[in-house]
Amino acid sequence: MPRYYTEEHEWLDVDGDIATVGITDFAQGQLGDIVFVEVPDTGAELSQGGDAAVVESVKAASDVYAPVDGTVTEGNSQLEEDPALVNSDPEGEGWFFRMTLSDKSQLDALMNAAAYKAFCDDL
Amino acid sequence: MREDEEVATEIAPETATLPLDAWHRAKGARMVEFAGYWMPIQYEGIMTEHLWVREHAGLFDVSHMGQISISGDGAAEALETLVPGDISALKPGRMRYSLLLAEDGGILDDLMVTNEGDQIGIVVNGAVKWEDIGYLRENLPDDITLNHNEDYGLLALQGPKAVAALTRLVPEAAGLVFMQAATATWNGHAIALSRSGYTGEDGFEISLPNEALADFADALCAMEEVKPIGLGARDSLRLEAGLPLYGHDLHEGIDPIEGDLAFAISKRRREEGGFPGAARILGHLADGSPRKRVGLLIDGKMPVREGAKLFDGNTEIGVVTSGGFAPSVGAPIAMGYVPRDHAAPGTAIAAEVRGKRVPVTVAATPFVPHNYVRKQGG
Question: How far apart are CA B50 and CA B295, in angstroms?
């Protein structure tokens, strides 16, 4: 299952026409202790670069943007009870939402793991 | 992913460095721009640091704050023309919280005033220190001397174990109670300390020459009770303690009664007036102010932050001036301004966050009890 990364520090796992989306380990480290996550409702239409979710640390609220176009099929309800999952397992149990892929060609412009690592090293 | 709030990462050319800048970076601090300085926002994490201070002792670098002294015959009386506290009754070694007032009674800054014997020490907020100094110079008589002590840094050691830790270095610390100050010597350096702070915990603020700061900070952090603590935890600690932050919860458009700071208007000053905006402030003291700063408990887990509007039904009634997750409460809390008839604890209202209404309840502050040491053996 290929994994893609965005410059906004999101990851996508693509399985057929469905992508699982979360924020990267680098991102959770920058944010610090996560105390609240707002995931999109099932059925929400997302467009690339638009608001998709909100993640709040002790100090600030941050927007999470839709990495590609599509429709939300599921939000991670576990984050409601345990937002700290984003800190402890950001690229696993701490996923934010799943969405359909309206335009798979949008994946071509995203980074792979090696490119994302190089991107973070340059920050 | 992008942050909404202004945790600045751009390098403004005028951003200054603190004397302990390299010390913070060596301790792994994440540095942000605040009040014109690069300051440590956190070392190991805001939550951990916050809880550490409530249980042990945390060392804060607050050297961005302005340390001012005024002296000359009648300095206390002169200062009283600008603040509502009884400064002339302040005995040597005693300090009081006061407010620098604009002509209309609006709050220009909140500050600590100490009778240091031969002079009056004033500690003001870093973000407005230059404005404060200008205002004081302009409004104090020419025969009052004002010094801005830029050669001194300021550290705060806060938490239930602060007294044990500090006493090992400065035995005089144990002899002070809340809001008392003293001078001492450490490693040949003249230092000043007071039992005060901004966390709601017992603790001290220590003023010492810039060249002594790093050694002193190292000596404290070598003790097992002490860890360095960043600005992030300083903010969440003071919020839980119900203490307002200037520039957010207090500003020039707010008077002391609106700001719920009536305690800062000393008894004699209430009777005599003679401070800026006395008519407005004493009127609000007698009749209540139209609006008031209150604490807010938030229903649910979503933080309600500065700028959120407050509603009673469909009517907008006020605004949140600080808010966030409170680690020791385990829930979000906030403070803000509401009309007088909505200011009673228990009043149910709502806040608007990203277009959604969140139930909130007006609450008494502090949210976490203060642990000040008010008398010896007590």
Answer: 19
Q: What is the pLDDT of residue B14?
A: 80
pLDDT in tens, A52-70: 999 999 989 999 999 999 9
Shortest CB distance from A32 goes to which of B42, B235, B332?
A: B42
Q: What stretches in chain A show pLDDT beneath 70?
A: none
pTM over cut 0.90: yes
Question: Which pLDDT value is given to residue B314?
Answer: 96
Q: How would DSSP label each residue in B23-62?
A: HHHHTTPEEEEETTEEEEEESS-HHHHHHHHHHSEEEEE-
Q: Is the CATH number of domain B290-363 2.40.30.110?
A: yes
State the pLDDT at residue B8: 46
Asked if B122 contacts B113 with a C-beta cutoff of 8 angstroms, the reply is yes
Say whether A61 and B305 touch across the interface (CB within 8 A).
yes
- pLDDT at position A123: 85
On whether residue A66 sits in a domain, the answer given is: yes
Q: Which of A8, A60, A80 is the closest to B4 by Cβ?
A: A60
User: Which of B201, B198, B202, B291 lies closest to B239, judged by CA?
Assistant: B198
Residues of B in contact with A27 (CB under 8 A): 1
Domain containing residue A57: CATH number: 2.40.50.100
Smallest Cβ–Cβ distance between A58 and the set B1, B302, B324 belongs to B324
CATH topology of domain B16-62+152-240: Gyrase A; domain 2 (3.30.1360)
**Domain count across chain A:** 1
Contacts of A33 in chain B (CB under 8 A): 45-48, 325
- Could you state, in order of their start, the residue ranges of all structural domains in chain B? 16-62+152-240, 290-363
Per CB-CB distance under 8 Å, the chain B contacts of A56 are 302-303, 325
Asked if residue A123 is part of any domain, the answer here is no
Neighbouring CB atoms inside 10 A of B94's CB total 14
Give me the pLDDT at residue B375, please.
79
Segment B14-43 shows an average pLDDT of: 95
